[in-house]
Structures are given as C-alpha cells and as structure tokens.
From TrEMBL:
Record-listed Mg(2+) binding positions: 14, 40
Keyword flag Phosphoprotein: no
Molecular-function GO terms, alphabetical: heptaprenylglyceryl phosphate synthase activity; magnesium ion binding
Gene3D superfamilies, per the entry: FMN-linked oxidoreductases (3.20.20.390)
Native species: Priestia filamentosa
Similarity section: Belongs to the GGGP/HepGP synthase family. Group I subfamily.
Full protein name: Heptaprenylglyceryl phosphate synthase
Lineage, highest ranks first: Bacteria, Bacillati, Bacillota, Bacilli, Bacillales
Length: 228
C-alpha cells in the first residue's frame, strides 16, 4: 500500500540484525502494509543496501527510516526522517537534519519524504540513550508533544516509541484522541496477536520490530490479527 495514511500494520527490520532468506520472504509476503528499515545503532550504507536489495525481491512497499546521514541511499519508496521532540540534544531535533539538508537538499523529493515527530517514552531503550530523551513524562506532557507535532509543526506522523516494552494502551488512546490529521504510529514490545490488536485499536499504525527476530511465528500472526 503506497499511501501511508492507510497503513495499519508495518514491520520494522533492523539492518544491523541478521535475518535468513526464508524468514525475510515470510515477512515480506505476510500481507503487512509496509516494511520500515531502521535501527538506532550499527546502521551502515552497506547493511542498508544489502537489506534493501533483498527486500526488493518482493512487492511490499519499503521505507528507510534515516538514523545516520551516511546510510541514506536511493531506491526506497519512502524516506522517514525522525525528529525526537523530547530529546535534550538539539542534534536529534534539528541539528543532523540541518547538516543533511546542506548535503541532500537539492536532490530531495518531498513527495517521498515524511518527517516523524518521535516521543520516546521508554527510558531504557537504545534510542532514548542515544538521543538523551527526557522520558519522565506524564500523559499531559505526551499529549502536548503530539499537539506540537500536529498543530505547530504540521508533521504527518507522531511516533510514540516504547521500543522494547509494551506501552500504556490508555495513554496511546488518549494521544490518538488529541490528534486529527497527524497519524499516530505506535511501536514497542508487541509480541502477540492480542497485543497487536489492542494497540491497533488505539493507534493508526502499529510497528512490529524485535519479535521478528525472537519469535517469527508470533510476529507473522500479528499481521492477520490486525488486518484480517
Ligand atoms: C540519495 C537520496 C535518495 C536521498 C534522499 C534524501 C533524503 C531523505 C535525505 C535525508 C535527509 C535528512 C533530513 C536526514 C536526517 C538526518 C538524521 C541523521 C536525523 C536524525 C535521526 C535521528 C533522530 C536518529 C536517532 C535515533 C532514532 C530516533 C532512530 C529511529 C529508529 C528507532 C527508534 C529504532 C528503535 O531502536 P532499535 O535500534 O530497534 O533498538 P533495539 O536494537 O534495542 O531493538
Ligand atoms: O522492536 P519493538 O519493541 O517491536 O518496537 C518497534 C519499533 O517501535 C522500534 O523502533
Ligand atoms: Mg529493534
């Protein structure tokens, strides 16, 4: 599906993790709406290119979630650019983006680029450490970030990131209710069909990551549960 507004379920594949051809085929042919290629660390041009070439054997739409300037390459359907709204290091809000604009500005095709306003709420995840995210947030704080994403910055995506742990469903629902045009992506700790369905009722799009590498069968079952 090439309209990100219709995405209900996506898989996130980490170029820094190994996946066999057989497992990759099952992920790409699962019926998921798209694959996001991204990770916090160890993402290089080489491992991004290798994974892209392997995903391109299949017709599933594929987005690169840019986490370092050096690993950007042509060939993806979409480019997702994270800006971490609750980072305390300006590099991850606008700094690296400013550098990238100087390097790529001339060749950027804005039809395929989507900026994601991230709010990272799991203090223990890599992305929180790397971006020095301020994770001591209550519901009012998270909703304020969501409204900043939608109303101040008019971002297409607000990404509530619990990477590695399953989140607070009631909080996700309340964030969703505070948004009208910006799409809510939820990611973190989905490891079963039940969790995928529960979060899919709360958010616009659920992102399923680590369980692909830990329990592929469970990961694949989340697709039918959400979209079936
Ligand atoms: C050549 C060509 C076609 C060019 C296209 C033009 C283009 C799109 C250029 C890029 C322009 C641009 C503005 C780039 C942005 C530059 C940049 C580096 C921005 C900073 C990104 C950022 C904030 C990174 C911080 C980390 C982060 C939020 C990563 C997102 C992924 C994430 C949270 C993964 C979850 O963690 P994970 O790694 O899975 O953790 P585990 O391993 O523990 O599971
Ligand atoms: O890896 P998990 O915990 O499924 O999280 C998915 C995604 O939000 C990570 O950026
Ligand atoms: Mg991961």
């Amino acid at each position: 599906m090439y309209d990100i507004n219709g995405w209900k379920h996506v898989f996130k594949l980490d170029p820094n993790k190994d996946i066999s051809d057989e497992h990759l085929e099952q992920v790409c042919e699962s019926g998921t709406d798209a694959i996001i290629v991204g990770g916090t660390d160890g993402v290089t041009l080489d491992n991004v290119l290798q994974l892209l070439a392997r995903i391109r054997r299949y017709t599933v739409p594929c987005a690169l979630e840019v986490s370092s300037i050096d690993s950007v390459t042509p060939g993806f359907d979409f480019y997702f650019i994270p800006t971490v709204l609750n980072s305390s290091n300006t590099d991850f809000i606008t700094g690296l983006h400013h550098q990238a604009m100087k390097e790529f500005g001339e060749i950027m095709d804005w039809n395929e680029i989507f900026v994601e306003g991230y709010c990272i709420v799991n203090s223990d995840c890599k992305a929180a450490h790397v971006t020095e995210a301020k994770t001591e947030l209550d519901e009012e704080d998270v909703i304020a970030y969501a409204q900043m994403a939608e109303r101040m910055f008019r971002l297409p995506i607000f990404y509530l990131e619990y990477s590695g742990v399953y989140g607070d469903v009631s909080l996700v629902k309340n964030v969703k209710n505070a948004l009208s045009t910006t799409k809510l992506f939820y990611g973190g700790g989905i490891a079963s069909s039940e969790q995928a369905v529960e979060m899919a009722h709360a958010a616009d799009t659920v992102v399923v990551g680590n369980v692909i590498y830990e329990d592929l069968k469970a990961a694949l079952q989340t697709v039918g549960a959400v979209k079936g």
